[in-house]
Amino acid sequence: ERLRRGVVLGLLTVIGVRLILGGAGIA
Length: 27
Description:
The chain is mainly α. The protein has one helix spanning 2-26.
């Protein structure tokens, strides 16, 4: 379960960074 939690946090971080960086380009 610890690994699963790490994977989820990792994905959320990657998605968050992409939204922030991509959001600047979209906006």
